[in-house]
Amino acid sequence: MKHVPVKLGPLALLLAVVAICLTILAILSFTTGQADLRLAQRYADTVTERYALEAEGQQYVAIVNEGKAPESGQDEISGTLGSLVQETGALHLDFVLKKNARGTYDITAWKFIRDWEEDTSLDNIWTGE
User: Which residues contact 113 (CB under 8 A, 6 or more apart)?
Assistant: First the structure.
């Protein structure tokens, strides 16, 4: 019986390519997972901040409807409630309250606004002019 030697050159090259591909996929999976975690944390912080500001606004409406606020003699009250300033800017709640036939106030406008500043650190981007 004649023994045929196995040539390991092509097999070694194939295994090296497979190992490199698996390493790249592992690194991409890890970085994608980290990015998703950061994005989920930012979203959770924003939702928490919005709900806290919503609760503060509802408490203010309740105080106005009880007649304890100094502005409660007016037919229409508008104002702004603010929240903590984070790295993404300050979140404000703009509201307009209007007196109804029962003598209490209804919310006619309720809008969240986040302060935003343009990122000017990239000077080489075309501005459209």
Answer: 91, 92, 93, 94
Tell me, yes or no, whether 17 lies in a domain.
yes
Cα of 122 vs its chain's centroid, Å: 22
Structural domain includes residue 73: yes
Give the number of other Cβ atoms within 10 Å of residue 80's Cβ: 10
115 φ, ψ (degrees, to nearest 5): -65, 140
Q: Is the distance from CB of 95 to CB of 86 less than 8 angstroms?
A: no
Residues 58-80 have pLDDT tens digits of 888 888 888 776 665 677 777 77
Amino acid present at 45: D
Q: Which domain holds residue 25?
A: 9-114
Domain count, the chain: 1
Q: What stretches of 1-129 show up as alpha helix (H) in DSSP?
A: 9-65
Query: 82: pLDDT confidence band, cut at 50, 70 and 90?
Result: low
Higher pLDDT, 119 or 2: 2
The SS3 assignment for 30 reads helix
> Which pTM value belongs to this model?
0.62
State how far Cα 34 lies from the chain centre.
16
